[in-house]
Design goal:
Elements: H1 22-31, H2 35-68, H3 73-120, H4 132-173, H5 175-222, H6 224-229, H7 233-286, H8 291-312, H9 314-332, E1 353-359, E2 366-370, E3 375-379, H10 383-393, E4 401-406, E5 409-410, H11 416-422, E6 423-426, E7 435-436, H12 437-442, H13 452-457, H14 460-466, E8 474-475, H15 484-497, E9 502-506, H16 514-527, E10 532-536, H17 540-543, E11 548-551
Parallel strand pairs: 3-10, 3-11, 6-9, 9-10
Antiparallel strand pairs: 1-2, 1-4, 4-5, 7-8
Helix pairs in contact: 1-3, 1-4, 1-9, 2-3, 2-4, 2-8, 3-4, 4-5, 4-8, 4-9, 5-7, 5-9, 7-8
């Protein structure tokens, strides 16, 4: 049965994302796509392990009373066989349950990661924007923490069954001892739940601060070369140290409370079990129970310490899972940056672009017409406005007011994929993908078309010939293995190879020398002759090839 994501990549109505609760996120990870049945099977296996472990001291007590005390060799052999079968079942049930539990956990984490990736890659964007490092932290650490609650839930259910088995065994041995366990366990658990509540708040603060520091580190590292080039390395390091210190302090606070919480767990559970052992000892001394039954009582008391603490720690596990689920839910519920088209219209006459009274970045309204075969230059000293125009034409943001038309259609009426297939707005930052140089250039080229003309027009052929493996040369993240000029020319070749009907280029030659810039200008004019092109630049060489130049 195909899976249904929490959030689809496209919506057909107004941009209203329903509120997603942490409970829904946890349910998504552990109970969807048949994982609920697998989780139940894992719980059965863990329960079998706990029940068998609880019965071990009972069987040892029976060995003492019915074989050792009576010197019955046949009975001794029989009970040893029973004990061997019990241990075999104990080991096999754990192995079976652990394998299923791990499978549910990994598949649940994968499903959450896919939901997060789908939200992060939504073509309508996110508002407010999230740093890539933050999204990465949520998709890895928090998704794993939520899915890991699968193991917590199944083992804690099994622990509860183990406690119930021990209580029944104690009732069979002695009603007062059984009642002591049955009536004493709920207050102990309730007390520990009260103690665990502050831990949830500490855990959430810890995870938020840690994710913030991790996100900042990832983003700073991705731009390390640029930061070093502009002499901002020390400032970036200082900023990260501040975030890291805040994260460390939050972690230390949470760990100090965790230590106190663990100590309280051990003290309360230990005191409760000591009472059980003391009452059992007094009853054995008075002859109310046999020696074997007393051994069983002591063994059950020692056994109970494990599952009781396991149950008590359920609150801590739930606290961490809920804290992570809250972060995942917050990301998945982030609204779109632009409004999806409720009823996408068919595109007509895509060969011209029109802006009417468009207000961006607080600047004055702009009117603009770009027709097929034209190269229009725009000169502005407002870098924020230029960036905003690129984003608005690509529908990464909405203009403050005014309308933008592609052909006969307002761009907000078009399906966003169709718009971006006809309008390519290339930002100033020349970001490349991990892969080969050839992969990057061909990424946007029409299927079956060669990009040789685009490569020559962008003067990227000089870059390719200088690389050790040419087009097969590997590119690292963001293209940081190349120089700024090399990245810029490869990114420009990629944009030109797209053959987009409308191409918007923002300062495409700032990292090249004047001779190469002149060659690129001629190449753009030749390759884009039959299409509409918008150049946001102050370069005289590029402005010289424009049919019209508009100064803002």
């Amino acid at each position: 049965m195909p899976s249904t994501p929490l959030l689809s990549a496209e919506t057909n109505g107004p941009p209203a994302r329903p509120a997603i609760t942490p409970r829904q996120v946890i349910t998504r990870a552990i109970a969807s796509e048949g994982r609920g049945a697998k989780l139940a099977a894992a719980s059965v296996g863990f329960t079998g392990h706990q029940v068998a472990e609880a019965l071990v001291p009972v069987v040892i007590g029976a060995v003492i009373d019915r074989a050792v005390a009576t010197s019955d060799a046949a009975a001794l052999g029989k009970w040893i066989l029973v004990l061997g079968i019990l241990f075999t079942g104990l080991l096999l049930s754990w192995r079976f349950a652990a394998r299923i539990s791990d499978s549910v956990t990994e598949h649940g984490a994968h499903r959450l990661r896919m939901d997060i990736a789908r939200r992060g890659l939504d073509p309508h964007g996110m508002s407010p924007r999230r740093m890539p490092g933050e999204v990465y932290s949520i998709a890895t650490s928090d998704a794993g923490s939520v899915a890991g609650f699968t193991h917590t839930l199944s083992t804690k259910l099994a622990a509860a069954c183990g406690v119930l088995t021990a209580a029944i065994s104690l009732l069979v041995i002695s009603v007062p001892l059984g009642l002591l366990v049955i009536l004493g366990t709920p207050p102990v658990l309730a007390l520990m739940q009260v103690v665990s509540r502050p831990l949830e708040r500490r855990a959430e603060t810890d995870q938020w601060q840690g994710a913030k520091a991790g996100a900042l580190a990832a983003d700073l590292l991705s731009g390390l070369r640029i930061l070093s080039g502009i002499g901002a390395g020390d400032a970036a390091a200082q900023r990260y140290r501040g975030a890291s210190r805040t994260s460390l302090e939050a972690t230390l606070r949470a760990q100090r409370y965790q230590a106190m919480y663990s100590a309280a767990n051990v003290a309360i559970a230990g005191a409760f079990l000591a009472v059980i052992a003391y009452v059992g000892g007094r009853m054995a001394a008075s002859g109310s129970i046999s020696v074997g039954e007393f051994v069983a009582v002591v063994g059950l008391a020692q056994f109970l310490r494990g599952p009781l603490i396991d149950i008590i720690y359920f609150g801590a596990g739930l606290a961490r899972a809920r804290a992570s689920a809250n972060r995942v839910a917050s990301l998945l519920a982030t609204g779109e940056a632009v409004t999806p088209a409720s009823d996408p219209a068919p595109l007509n006459h895509a060969e011209f672009l029109t802006l009417r009274d468009v207000v961006l970045a607080g600047a004055s309204p702009v009117d603009l017409d770009v027709k097929r075969g034209e190269i229009i230059g725009i000169v502005t000293e407002n870098a924020a406005w230029a960036d905003a125009l690129v984003d608005a034409l690509a529908r990464r943001i909405e203009p403050s007011s005014g309308t933008i038309h592609l052909g006969d259609n307002a761009i907000h009426e078009l399906h966003i994929d169709e718009l971006r297939a006809h309008v390519l707005a290339a930002p100033h930052d020349a970001a490349l993908f991990i892969g080969t140089v050839g992969d990057n250039i061909e990424a946007l080229a029409p299927i079956g078309r060669r990009s040789d003309e685009a490569v020559a027009a962008a003067a990227a052929d000089q870059v390719i010939s200088a690389l050790p493996l040419g087009l097969a040369t590997r590119v690292t993240e963001q293209g940081n293995s190349l120089s700024g000029g090399q990245r810029q020319r490869i990114a420009l070749a990629r944009a030109l190879a797209s053959e987009a009907p409308v191409l918007v280029l923002h300062d495409p030659t700032t990292a090249v020398d004047s001779v190469t810039e002149a060659r690129i200008a001629r190449g753009i004019a030749e390759v884009r002759g039959a299409h509409a092109t918008l150049l946001l630049t102050s370069s005289p060489v590029l402005l010289d090839i424009c049919d019209r130049v508009i100064e803002l």
